[in-house]
Specification:
With about 450 residues, the chain is mainly α. The chain is about 85% helix and about 0% strand. It has 19 helices and no strands.
């Protein structure tokens, strides 16, 4: 799929959709990986299922630096291409690959000796300990490869080659499913390794996706010696990547740690805390399906804004930010209204117990009301990522999550309403405040100044 600047200008909404639908499919395949992992783990026992859920959440923290570097890659490469500085773009590709390899190996080297201590910090129950020890060892070996998969997918998105990450994710999903069922349950004559099979299915599938991406980059001419920049250039180019990446990584930590605290506030409710926690877990799973397109629109915003800012067209970049936002709100609002018509039978699939089902629907009511706010935060954050203005995202999310959502959730849930409804209301209110602040920032602040200024091409390359 080759989307040109003329396409973006003459058919803006078609461009947005053409960039978004492959990424929506990619997110669906990503969801399928998690569902298959959980389903197979449930067949192996509750300890295995609980361990799979815990290691999946823990892996996010190991991958924060990769996701931050990926945001820096999208900003730097898309802006370079938009400016017509193709040599600079190729050099940033090489720099991001080198950084990904070094950072992934660093996490492995530092994390491996402390892997059992990490399990102690997570307070892993003794009956799950043997499973988690095996999982975390295999997954730490996987970290460098996972870094390459995340960063190479970001490189393709920055180049508007959104079909390539989709192909990669199809490979990962197919191999992970075959590995889970074959090695985890012993199907098709494969050795029945149980929980160990789940770990190696993840290892093999992620590795295959990363290898596919690296071979594709090589065939495109990126991973050749002549395209690699000299060390002096890398030294001067690295500060921009760092400026974009460190707020992005810190924001990921702020966001995920905020959700962990929200779980804790819910779990410590004075009444019906177990029901509330189960309802929240089920509600988040349904909500995550609904927001798959939102993540795709978020990534599309980063791509388009980066290209237009690189070309020096800040006004057009802002227009596209609004277009993506309005398209996403319209698409997701209609989807939410249709889903609400069948919300009970759909939610009952994963929450069959009536009291848990009622609480899950209660959670979804407030969070589906927040869809316009949530989408505004996600799309505008994606746009600011593409501009390199990740420092705004960090401050906005930190203030609204830790300064508003969590204190308000405790007050409304524990002190005022004495129920989970107070927590769900706090989430709605905080989303409204967050959306208002980030929309004001996008509309009124000079976030364009964080992009790389279009310079003389000869000098900049």
């Amino acid at each position: 799929m080759n989307i040109t600047t003329a396409d973006m200008t003459n058919a803006p909404y078609r461009t947005i959709w053409n960039l978004s639908w492959p990424q929506i499919l990619m997110m669906i395949f990503h969801l399928m990986i998690g569902l298959v992992d959980v389903w197979v783990a449930s067949k192996l026992g509750r300890e295995i299922q609980a361990s799979m859920g815990m290691i999946s959440q823990s892996l996010v923290f190991f991958l924060v630096i990769a996701m931050a570097t990926a945001n820096g890659a999208v900003a730097a490469i898309s802006q370079s291409i938009g400016a017509g500085l193709l040599k600079r773009a190729r050099r940033y590709v090489g720099l991001c690959i080198i950084l990904g390899a070094l950072l992934g190996l660093t996490i492995l080297i530092i994390g491996f000796p402390f892997r059992n201590g990490i399990l102690t910090i997570l307070q892993v129950p003794q009956e799950m300990r043997y499973v988690m020890e095996y999982f975390i060892e295999v997954f730490l070996y996987l970290v460098p490869t996972y870094y390459m998969l995340i960063i190479t997918n970001a490189i393709f998105r920055a180049q508007k080659r959104v079909m390539l990450p989709l192909y990669s994710m199809i490979i990962v999903t197919m191999l992970n499913t075959i590995g889970d069922l074959g090695l985890g349950l012993g199907m098709w004559g494969l050795p029945n390794l149980g929980y160990k099979g789940l770990a190696w299915a993840t290892f093999g599938s992620i590795t295959a996706g990363a290898v596919f991406n690296m071979l594709t980059l090589f065939r495109m001419g990126h991973l050749r010696r002549k395209t690699m920049a000299p060390f002096r250039w890398m030294k001067s180019a690295f500060p921009y990547l760092f400026k974009v990446a460190w707020p992005s990584g810190l924001m990921q930590l702020v966001w995920h740690s905020g959700y962990m605290v929200l779980y804790s506030i819910t779990a410590s409710l004075p009444e019906n805390n177990i029901i509330a926690l189960a309802g929240m877990t089920a509600g988040i799973r349904i909500e995550s399906i609904l927001f798959l397109p939102a993540f795709a629109f978020n990534m599309t915003a980063s791509i388009i804004i980066g290209h237009y800012l690189g070309d020096g067209k800040a006004d057009e970049a802002k227009k596209f930010g609004y277009r993506i936002l309005f398209l996403a709100i319209g698409f997701l609002s209609i989807s939410a209204l249709l889903l609400w018509q069948v919300i009970y039978p759909v939610t009952a699939i994963i929450a069959p117990e009536q009291v848990v089902l009622d609480e899950a629907v209660n959670y979804l009511f407030y969070n589906m009301l927040a869809i316009p706010f949530t989408l505004t935060s996600m799309i505008m954050a994606g746009a600011l990522n593409g501009a390199g203005a990740t420092i705004y995202n960090l401050f906005i999310f930190a203030i609204t999550v830790w300064g508003c959502r969590l204190p308000l959730a405790y007050v409304l849930g524990h002190e005022v309403m004495h129920s989970a409804t107070g927590i769900w209301m706090a989430m709605l209110i905080s989303q409204g405040i967050q959306a208002s602040i980030i929309f004001y920032t996008f509309s009124c602040k000079n976030w364009q100044k964080f992009s790389m200024i279009k310079k003389n091409k000869k000098k900049d390359q």
